Amino acid sequence: MLGKLIKHEFKDTAQNFCAMYLIVLLIGVVLKVAIEIEVSFKIDNIILDIVSLIMVTAFVLGILAIMFGTIILILKRFYDNVVKDEGYLTFTLPVSTGKIIATKALVSYLWIIISGLAILVMGLLMFVGHTDAFIIIKKGIVETCDKISNAGLWSGVILLIIVILVSLYSYISVGYACFSVGQTWNKNKLLGAVITYVVIYFVTQIISVVAMVVIFGSNMTVLDDVAMVDKSFDYLMIFSLALTVIKCAVCDIITHVVLRKKLNLQ
Asked: What pTM did the predictor assign?
């Protein structure tokens, strides 16, 4: 049943995401063609320059739209499908509240990953046809990897990647918790969600600052010491990972408990 839920959720959300990707991709293609024409034929035309400038602006805005639009779309999907009137249909399904939340969270996280890959592909699109650019990029990656290996920092890099991946999920977890708590506020559901987010944010920041002081001492200028940073980076990443995991777990529990015991669809 969970597999069917995931498949249905993915199909229902695919239209909006694919449309967003396609629009930005088309803008990128037009920009690429305009740049190639201008460079290949050495055209110095103010109209083409203006078109290129407009397309560059549109492309950058499109990339930003994918970044922020992905989060907005997945949170709006949860709000519309669970908190608002559609919630009546959602919670009539013969599945537990936990499976409903897990399905939406899993599909949402998948779309975040896909959006990240889409941005990467669209960025690389600008270098298509320029082998030298790819050679430079490859050389830069190899040199960076060598420096990391020589400095013995691979453990920190791996931890950083894990922290980033978990942090991406935290957007979903915190967002779901905020809307879940907010829906108990009757006519002020969005206000309740915003206030819940502010509370979670400040509590997390306070815990982070206290822990930083404990780890590095009251004199935070030690962070300017390169040796200190190198030595403590792994511990800092482990702390960040632990804090993020705990935050996600608490938010997931809040979402599950509130939706199971205090669901308010009025």
From this structure: 0.84
